[in-house]
Design a protein that fits this description.
mainly beta; Neuraminidase; five-stranded mixed sheet; Gal_Oxase/kelch_b-propeller; Tip elongation aberrant protein 1; Kelch-typ_b-propeller; repeat; kelch repeat
Length: 358
């Protein structure tokens, strides 16, 4: 549990598990503190509620869990794109803007940020007609632009990146460059900052605004769009065999610009666009059976949206920002898992091990 200390008008969060942003000293914006924690409705079911964290209008940003805090970087509102860093602290019900130093990235949206040891790795993104392929490292609130080597990916945004710890590598897939959607895949050696382009006999259609979640040696890619079609498929990439598979689905949902997070043996997939409209559905995808399941959700369901972030912390999912075509949302929602909290403790399963035969 982090401990809060006060030094004059500055606020310091001391967190022994979080060395990326500690010590946190911000004089740009004071933490927003409520009078009391939110009241929970009397139900054991999963339920949505609005949080008292304050206002942060953002879309196409990144939100990354670091220790006991969620680091929120970049994204846009209705008028501007940002390169600012905020920290949401569920323990203290606070939202704080942090000052950063070094070689800062430009204002970005649709980039990726991936946690790595005690640092954060940022790649790509852009704003307006600008697309980037720069690589940055954030360590102790100091940004550093990395000198990349090898087969450096082309400029892009709306791609995905996941960390594969056993191989000490970052896997980057897809996205778009403003002219077309991309289907290429790269591996970044994090010891040497060297890129390698991966080739497969077959691969999914080009896409951006998909999601990618890593479970062991499998990367699960959900939905996305090539600028023409909105996809309803789920592809699984096997890192060891460098091959893709396409499991048959009895139920399908078209999704782009949605959010997903792994909760034990499930993917929780929220919102996005289905090719016709934005939605606020919460889909549960069983990673063992490779099928969607339904679950009753209670509380104040967020408005339909895409381009939001969904982050798991302590059996609660935090939904930040989003966009419905006209409104950039500033409210932060929480989904309390209730009696389903045990799901986040499930581990050691094999993706697709309970898949039905057809």
């Amino acid at each position: 549990m982090p401990h809060r200390k006060h030094f004059g008008n500055s606020s310091v969060i001391s967190n022994p598990r979080n060395t990326i942003i500690a010590p946190v000293i911000s004089n740009l914006q004071s933490p927003i503190l409520p009078v009391s924690a939110p009241v929970r409705p009397p139900t054991t079911g999963a339920y949505w509620h609005k949080t008292p964290f304050g206002s942060l209008p953002r879309r196409a940003h990144s939100a990354t869990l670091v220790g006991d805090e969620i680091c929120i970087f970049g994204g846009c509102d209705r008028n501007s794109c940002f390169n600012t860093l905020f920290v949401l602290s569920p323990c203290f019900y606070s939202l704080t803007q942090l000052s950063t130093y070094g070689t800062r990235p430009p204002p970005l949206r649709a980039h990726t940020i991936t946690p790595y040891n005690d640092s954060l790795i940022l790649f790509g993104g852009g704003d307006g007609s600008n697309y980037h392929n720069a690589l940055y490292l954030l360590h102790h609130r100091v940004w550093k632009k990395i000198d990349q080597k090898g087969d450096i990916p082309s400029p892009r945004r709306a791609h995905t990146a996941v960390l594969h710890q056993p191989s000490n590598s970052l896997l980057l897939y897809g996205g778009g460059d403003g002219a077309r959607a991309l289907d290429d895949m790269y591996s970044l050696n994090l010891a040497s900052w060297t890129w390698s382009k991966l080739s497969q006999k077959t691969r999914p259609k080009s896409r951006g605004y998909h999601t990618a979640d890593l479970i062991g040696d499998k990367m699960v890619v959900t939905g996305g769009s090539d600028g023409v079609d909105c996809f309803d498929d789920i592809h699984i990439y096997d890192i060891k065999s460098n091959s893709w598979s396409l499991p048959p689905l009895s139920t399908k949902y078209k999704r782009l610009s949605h959010s997903s997070v792994r909760v034990g043996s499930y993917l929780f997939i929220f919102g996005g666009h289905n090719g016709y409209q934005y939605n606020s559905e919460l889909l549960l995808f069983n990673l063992v059976t490779l099928e969607y399941e339904t679950k009753k959700i209670y509380g104040s369901v967020p408005e339909p949206r895409g381009y939001a972030s969904l982050t798991l912390y302590n059996n609660t999912l935090y939904l930040i920002g989003g966009f419905d075509g006209s409104t950039v949302f500033d409210q932060i929602y929480a989904l309390e898992l209730g009696a389903s909290a045990y799901l986040s403790q499930i581990d050691g399963f094999q993706v697709g091990s309970g898949q039905r035969s057809i």
